[in-house]
Every structure is written in structure tokens, then in C-alpha cells.
Amino acid sequence: MELIQRPRRLRRNEQLRTLVRETALTPSNFVYPLFVCEGEGVKREIASMPGCYNMSIDNLVEEVGFARNEGISSVILFGVPDEKDAAGSGAYAEDGIVQRATRSLKRHFNDILVIADNCLCEYTDHGHCGVIDDGEVLNDPTLDLLARTAVAQAQAGADIIAPSNMMDGFVAAIRSALDRQGYEGVPVMSYAVKYASGFYGPFREAAQSTPRFGDRSGYQMDPANVREALREAALDVEQGADILMVKPALPYLDIIRAVRERFDLPVAAYQVSGEYAMIKAAGRMGWIDETRVMIESLTSIKRAGAEIILTYFARDMARAL
Ligand code: PBG
Fold it and tell me: pLDDT digit string (tens) for 62-107?
């Protein structure tokens, strides 16, 4: 009888499948994004992100404690300030919301990595990621503010600075400011490849950071481009990035793979708010099995080549494992 190949032999039971599984997720892969706001005792659920909250610092500390007990050891902080202005000064104020939250987390935990998102859009009254003149987002004047923000974040104890603003030269500007101030040991995780994506919608609701006019396609990338992604990543490597991030994740698995193959730095991917919202919404409608789709989508992101995954599912996933 003709010999037929039988790949099903290794799928016959869970033990065999586990034995040959190529991709495994662990809680140490995950970074948990959190929104911190002013006040005390505040915990407001974000309507389009069920299970995610705007939290005041006291509740943030509690949440990070829960996550830590489930095996999550990294968080990334986004600030939701009460006051916004044209220059986004809350981003770099010594007592800015993220700086205070970072100090507080560092006082409470000695084994939690605090990553500070570095951008202005949550702090500007116009909602853009940089300084505006005549309807234009100015590049170089914005760099100075991002550099100040990075130094303020490092001073507060942030372990990693994660610039997400997509100005040209932002890694170099942040790296040299950190080095000048004695923070040469603080790594930069660059949102090297960040697309102008409709998947950020729920985040903008959470951070109240929707641009008042125009959109971000003058600085974030065109979803149609892959060569440009490699060029963006190469520039960030030259400027001293320590970790490269691709964002969003699921619609850009090919980009994660391309960056993984081209560069030897650790690669991170951000499963963004809209990716989370879609899974949550369809799960709630009973149209998909939320847990299964969560595991499958996170597995695909890791399989594509990201060893670090920023995900709002961090706690759910840690519990599922
Ligand atoms: C700040 C920033 C954004 C996200 C992360 N950092 C929003 C944006 O660019 O509009 C989005 C993250 C998410 O959607 O979960 N620039």
C-alpha cells in the first residue's frame, strides 16, 4: 500500500499537541496598558473597552497589585490629565499625572517594570501629538518637548521610555536628552512602526485625545506600506532604539514578521484598543468565543515574531494560562 503522510498522528490528543507546539505564551511576554487620571477613588469604565478603566493613582496601585499576583510584571502608563493646553505641558511637568503615578508604583512595588508612553496628544488641547502652527504639526519644536517629557519620566523612576508620537528624529532626541541627564541606562522602546489606524478609536475615547481638526496621517504611517516600515525601523535603530514596536498588531502581522527578520533587536507589538474592542464586542454578542479568540490572536502575534505584546487582555490572558 502506498505510504501516505499522516500529520494527524501528532494531533491525536492534547499531550501530543502540547509536545509539538511551536509557540507558547507566558505572562512575562505581556505589557499591561493602563490609563491614569486625577482624583481619588476614581475607577471609570471606558465604554468602548469593557474591563478597562480610567483610574486614579490609588486604584491604579491596586490594579497593578492584582496584575502582579497573576504574573504580569510590566505596565505601560497613559495619562488622562484634567487640564490640557496647546503645548501639552502636563506631559513634562514634574508633577504630571504619569510622573506621579510612576513614583507611586515605584514606592509600592520593587518588581514591576514601569514603561512610560511618551507623547503629547493626551495633554494638548488640540489633540495632536506635537506643537501646532498654522494647522501644521511642527516636527523639531516638538522634539524638545518629547525630550523633556522623557527626562521627567526617567526622573520619576520610569524603567523604559516608549515614544509613540512619530515625529522624525524622536529616538535621537530622547536618547541624547536622557544621556545628558545621566539616564544612559534607561532603554527606549520605540513605536518605530506606527500606522495611522482606525483601530485607535476606543483609546482616543479613553484618553480624550481625538484631534480637534484633521487627523494623524501627516505623521503616522500609511497602512499600505511595508518598505517604509523597514526604513522607519532602520532609522530608529541608528538613533539608538533598544526595542522596536509595531502597532497595531493583528492587521500588521506581515510587518511584525518583516521587522523580526530584518533586525536583531527585541520586537514588541501593540494589540491596540480597537482590536480589543472588537473581540470583546463580538464575545458579548455571543458571536465568537472571546477567550478562544483572545488566545488565538495573541498566539498569532507571537508567532509572527513579537516577543513582547502590549495588550489590554494581559490579566485575562494570564488567568487563562
Ligand atoms: C499616543 C498613543 C495612541 C495609542 C498609543 N499611544 C493613540 C493615537 O496615536 O491616537 C493607541 C493605543 C490603542 O489604541 O490602544 N499617540
Answer: 999 999 999 999 999 999 999 999 999 999 999 999 999 999 999 9
Domain holding 269: CATH number? 3.20.20.70
CA-nearest residue, atom 12 of ligand 1: 272
16 CA → ligand 1 middle, Å? 40
Residue 42 domain boundaries:
24-320
312 CB less than 6 Å from ligand 1? no
In a domain, 298, yes or no: yes
Does the residue 191 lie in any domain? yes
Taking Cα atoms as reference points, which of 60, 84, 67 lies closest to residue 132? Answer: 84
Q: Tell me the whole-structure pTM to 2 decimals.
A: 0.96
User: Which residues 6+ apart lie within 8 Å of 18 measured at CB?
Assistant: none
Residue 13 counted as domain residue = no
Contact status, residue 248 vs residue 193, Cβ threshold 8 Å: no
